[in-house]
Amino acid sequence: MAINIAESVPYLDKGCRYVDFYTRFLHPNLPCLFTEDHTKTWPARSRWGENGFINIDTVLKPFAGQELCVANCQEFEFGTHPMLTMSAEDYQSYWKGVDDGKILYLKDWHYFRNLDFNDFYNLPVYFSSDWLNEFSDFRTDCDDDFRFVYIGPKGTWTPLHTDVYCSYSWSANIIGLKRWWILPPGRPFVHPTVLRSHSGFLFLLRIVIGLR
């Protein structure tokens, strides 16, 4: 049985100092939630949303004519969902109800690879030391980044995993609801922690699978 401890996980408002965040959560490797005050002025909140729903036309507009990779959440192969390739226009039609019964998750999308992320959100001071992206931004041998966008209808999900390179990640929930399952060290699939985030963001240190 899952343990819902959302109320016991501390919420941090904009008054939280970096040193307090570091000593209370980052260094001891503990989860925390941030209030929506941190994201309410982000341009993405007004650009991508309309009356509480995703404005899919606006989100996909910069990618007209391009191919996207989406996960079919109704199938499971080799520990993950099989990936499909479809045009931005086809996913737009799928989102509006013209689909074939699949539950398609547009995930790990490098939305900001050719766009300036500063036009969509402001990097919180707590995550200003962004080692992976700083390293990638200065590389000349490849074009990569770790700034992802995820869009999916009800029922889309990601299998149990650790984040890229077992790194420390943070996520902002712009529209809708998302449930997080965080497994404690040494207890895979037993008593997962459930954290909910609504228009705020969750500092997800790591999804640990049987390791300390």
UniProtKB/TrEMBL annotation:
<dbReference type="InterPro" id="IPR003347">
    <property type="entry name" value="JmjC_dom"/>
</dbReference>
<comment type="similarity">
    <text>Belongs to the JMJD6 family.</text>
</comment>
<dbReference type="InterPro" id="IPR050910">
    <property type="entry name" value="JMJD6_ArgDemeth/LysHydrox"/>
</dbReference>
<dbReference type="GO" id="GO:0043565">
    <property type="term" value="F:sequence-specific DNA binding"/>
</dbReference>
<dbReference type="GO" id="GO:0005634">
    <property type="term" value="C:nucleus"/>
</dbReference>
<dbReference type="GO" id="GO:0045905">
    <property type="term" value="P:positive regulation of translational termination"/>
</dbReference>
<dbReference type="Pfam" id="PF02373">
    <property type="entry name" value="JmjC"/>
</dbReference>
<dbReference type="GO" id="GO:0005737">
    <property type="term" value="C:cytoplasm"/>
</dbReference>
<dbReference type="GO" id="GO:0016706">
    <property type="term" value="F:2-oxoglutarate-dependent dioxygenase activity"/>
</dbReference>
<feature type="domain" description="JmjC">
    <location>
        <begin position="112"/>
        <end position="212"/>
    </location>
</feature>
<protein>
    <recommendedName>
        <fullName>Jumonji domain-containing protein 4</fullName>
    </recommendedName>
</protein>
